[in-house]
Design goal:
Number of strands: 8
Largest sheet: 8 strands, parallel
Distance between the termini: 10 Å
Oligomer: single chain
Strand content: 15-25%
Structural class: alpha/beta
Shape: globular
Order of helices and strands: EHHEHEHEHHEHEHHEHEH
Helix content: 25-40%
Radius of gyration: 17 Å
Strand order of the largest sheet: 2-1-3-8-7-4-5-6
Length: 299
Amino acid sequence: MNVNLIGIPLFYGCDKKGPETAPDLLRNNGIESIINKHGYTVYDLGNLYVKQETDDNKFKSNTNMKYLDSIVDVNTNLAHMVYSSLESNSFPFMLGGDHSLGLGSISGVSKHDDKFAVIWMDAHGDINTHETSESGNTHGMPLGACMGFGHEKLTNLYFKGQKVNPKNVFILGARDLDKGETDLIDQHSLNVYSPEDMKSKGLKETVSSIINTLRQNNINRVHLSFDMDFIDSKFVPGTGTPVDSGFDVDETKTVLKEILESNLVKSIDFVEFNPNLDKDNTTLNLAIDLIDFMFENLK
């Protein structure tokens, strides 16, 4: 299989510098050869261009979405790159960057095949809108926008209309949700699993149930979006919005293995590694280990 490595050096979605340096740092630490050793041919497509903004432009859109123009531009380009990768029967692997890039990656998948599911591994729901967000940071909005909730500049990115059916979205590990997000979850009966939910049912059992549901609904494609803060804060100093009461590394790998061995995952986001916040390369080494693990177990 061909893997298209796509760097998205973006921090405007989280408004905290650092994640934009992660793609090149991971490259410089050999992730291409790590993926290669598992039998994949890697084509490094480089980093997407991110239009530089100044603080003066932070809210120039007057929409409670910071740096909106740059975020829309880079996500539109990412969407087309993901779509093109999938059309050429390649596997797009997105190296972030902050999680606002999920808007582009999911939009690209949707244009290629609109019958798919999203598994979103994250301490946060990322289903805020410009009306519910307290921060105005768009890395808290991409998944909601892909389901059709939010401002039209996000919901209609790349092509007009909903990108993924909410019933085919599964948020794993959520434990830091805003009021607007919990309201949306209740209103639309969204599939959200807290660490407590997953551990009480069993990690493998939780994922197995999700995979079985997808198969019953004839879904044969999953976009996996992995945020480093899925892991408990004590293990990942180098992420911008760490949350405790999460998962340790072994538990994270248990969840990943069950998802990856389903033979449904056809694209992956790897986001929210912030080298500026890391301590003694703890998060860097963990990120490299997780990427190695992902491609070792990808079926």
